[in-house]
Write a structure and sequence with these properties.
The chain is about 80% helix and about 0% strand. By secondary structure, the chain is mainly alpha-helical. The chain has one domain (about 1-235). One of its GO terms (molecular function) is proton motive force dependent protein transmembrane transporter activity.
Length: about 240
Amino acid sequence: MSANVSSNSNEAINFLVELRRRLIYSLIVLLLLFAVLVYFANHLYTLLALPLLKFLPQGHLIATQIVSPFFVPFKLAFMASMLLAVPFFLYQSWAFIAPALYGHERRMIWPFLLVSAGLFYAGIAFAYFVIFPMLFHFLARIAPVGVILSPDISEYLDFTIKLLLVFGGLFEIPIIMVLLVSTGVVTRERFIKMRSYAIVGAFIIGMLLAPPDVLSQTVLAVPIWLLYEAGILMSRFVRRSNASV
């Protein structure tokens, strides 16, 4: 009995030591990225603000707090560091849980993590290059007569980061579908039957997140629908893999 208790205690200690090691690695990479990006903090903010600046009559944002010109770019540099470190965080998570996985699970998780990170970054790029220009053009155009659109740099950062994360999350639709199918929560056939509802849902999301014109809403809705179709396609291979195990 004492031998079993000692063995369990050693396993728990090894578990905590390994977890701490992975967390330290992740923290070091995050701090290194931040140390590099903080030097370019102002340039990063200018890059983030470009989709709006081109539509502003005065061509600049404003800072309503005296410390905002320093802290807002600083905050952006840290957020950008976290976003860039996501693949490394995912790798450390995989390396931590890999010993507890079966061989076929270890072979599947690598492509899964790579596709997940790629889709997340694709969603961010889609928001920046497609949604931001349409949205800011619309907002600048509908300003009432006598009103000059002059957003605060802190409010703009919060607004754009939320949108970037929303679209990064939306582009994870195929991964979520694959997880649901692989765990047996939802079958692939069920997703196929729900295709019509998914199309309607995609256009509802387009209506909520895109400017109120048909073209902009369609530009957003069609990629979301295609992501749903990609999830159906990917879940087909997941089912085959599970069947072969």
